[in-house]
């Protein structure tokens, strides 16, 4: 036991020295675009609540009514006594809304990616994946018997070279539509051309796009995605996740996906709330417009102030580089009332640390002004 404890202490010490130690502050509550911490109120630029539904009074009351009506737990796996008709109805509603044949709900996006990627393929499959895919996708791939081949981030030219060497194997391309750290968008039309030529199965993680981008928030990847991954925990303001997929794939996962088979399913109240959310999404054009405008304003103002920032939508990546410097910038901003994530290795490549700025429809022009002025003052001192 002593040797075990000492090993953990040593690894944590090295983690601190490298600027990679994680110790998130305790949050007492969330109010609009702000968080209340022990040291006071801070503006929150580290949220994925892109449309503000996570603090919506309307949705809060609907969810409360649903849990009062249906109870707090399904108390079973989906494949035992948890296959409620309301959950199936909600899945059909999501499939219709987003334009797919079927949908399948999961307790988390991590579990959805794990179930899909660890189950669906065999040793006769080769999966070409963008090297900046989410950690949950990486873990799912690690559990898959498929042959794996990464391609350079957002490089369709590199992907094309990979595909040309793919041979006669069953071929899959795995990517994201809006990358969670880089903030850049998938070249859908370019990928569609490759799909027409090489005929691969395409899986697109749309976790950061669904609800926000595209008509009625339906995302951007439908022209290429045979299977899409979505989440309730970001723009949709709830919790859990879902796959949008062909009926045959849903049937296959029901029979072979261990993360689905051996987990308690989400409760009926969640399914009822998910249906309520679709109505809010359909009426969310004004929030989506506001989010697009404030995100562009933040990006433009940051660049005008001399900062290097990337991002095609509501996720902005402000380049820092050094892990210690990024952590210090984040900590100093918090002292000034600004909460923003210092994304460091292994979330991003080593030496490529960023401040990851999450914009929401709740942010105002004054919030942008405060952020930029505070950032200037902090970076001058570092």
TrEMBL record:
Keyword terms, alphabetized: Biotin biosynthesis, Pyridoxal phosphate, Transferase
Listed Pfam families: Aminotran_1_2 (PF00155)
PANTHER family per the UniProt record, alphabetical: 8-AMINO-7-OXONONANOATE SYNTHASE, CLASS II AMINOTRANSFERASE/8-AMINO-7-OXONONANOATE SYNTHASE
Domain (Aminotransferase class I/classII large) ranges: 42-375
UniProt name for this protein: 8-amino-7-oxononanoate synthase
Organism: Syntrophus gentianae
Catalytic activity: 6-carboxyhexanoyl-[ACP] + L-alanine + H(+) = (8S)-8-amino-7-oxononanoate + holo-[ACP] + CO2
Protein family per UniProt: Belongs to the class-II pyridoxal-phosphate-dependent aminotransferase family. BioF subfamily.
Cofactor: pyridoxal 5'-phosphate
GO MF annotation list: 8-amino-7-oxononanoate synthase activity; pyridoxal phosphate binding
Classification lineage: Bacteria, Pseudomonadati, Thermodesulfobacteriota, Syntrophia, Syntrophales
Enzyme Commission number, as recorded: 2.3.1.47
Quaternary structure and interacting proteins, as annotated: Homodimer.
BP term (GO), one: biotin biosynthetic process
Pathway listed: Cofactor biosynthesis; biotin biosynthesis
SUPFAM superfamilies on file: PLP-dependent transferases
Source taxon at top rank: Bacteria
């Amino acid at each position: 036991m002593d040797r075990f404890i000492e090993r953990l202490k040593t690894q944590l010490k090295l983690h601190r020295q490298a600027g990679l130690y994680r110790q998130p502050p305790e949050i007492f509550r969330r109010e609009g675009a702000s968080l209340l911490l022990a040291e006071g109120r801070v503006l929150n630029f580290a949220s994925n609540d892109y449309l503000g539904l996570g603090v919506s009074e309307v949705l809060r009351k609907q969810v409360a009514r649903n849990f009062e009506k249906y109870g707090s737990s399904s108390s079973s796996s989906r494949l035992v006594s948890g296959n409620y008709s309301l959950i199936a109805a909600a899945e059909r509603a999501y499939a219709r809304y987003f334009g797919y044949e079927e949908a399948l709900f999961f307790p988390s996006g991590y579990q959805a990616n794990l179930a899909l990627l660890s189950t669906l393929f065999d040793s006769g499959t080769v999966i070409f994946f963008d090297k900046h895919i989410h950690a949950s996708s990486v873990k799912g791939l690690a559990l898959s018997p498929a042959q794996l081949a990464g391609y350079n981030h957002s490089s369709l030219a590199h992907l094309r070279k990979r595909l040309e060497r793919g041979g006669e194997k069953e071929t899959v391309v795995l990517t994201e539509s809006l990358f969670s750290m880089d903030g850049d968008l998938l070249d859908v039309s370019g990928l569609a051309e490759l799909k027409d030529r090489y005929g691969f199965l395409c899986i697109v993680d749309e976790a950061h796009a669904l609800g926000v981008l595209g008509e009625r928030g339906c995302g951007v990847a439908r022209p290429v995605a045979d299977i899409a991954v979505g989440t309730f925990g970001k723009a949709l303001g709830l919790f859990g996740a879902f796959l949008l997929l062909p009926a045959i794939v849903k049937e296959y996962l029901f029979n072979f996906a261990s993360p689905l088979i051996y987990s308690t399913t989400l409760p009926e109240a969640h399914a009822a709330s998910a249906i309520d959310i679709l109505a809010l999404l359909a009426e969310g054009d004004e929030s989506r417009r506001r989010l697009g405008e404030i995100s562009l304003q933040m990006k433009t103002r940051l660049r005008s102030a001399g900062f290097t920032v990337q991002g095609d939508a509501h996720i902005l990546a402000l380049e820092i580089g050094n892990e210690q410097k990024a952590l210090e910038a984040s900590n100093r901003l918090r002292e000034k009332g600004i909460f923003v994530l210092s994304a460091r290795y292994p979330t991003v490549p080593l030496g490529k640390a960023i401040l990851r700025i999450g914009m929401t429809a709740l942010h105002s022009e004054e919030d942008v002004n405060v952020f930029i002025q505070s950032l200037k003052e902090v970076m001058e001192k570092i």
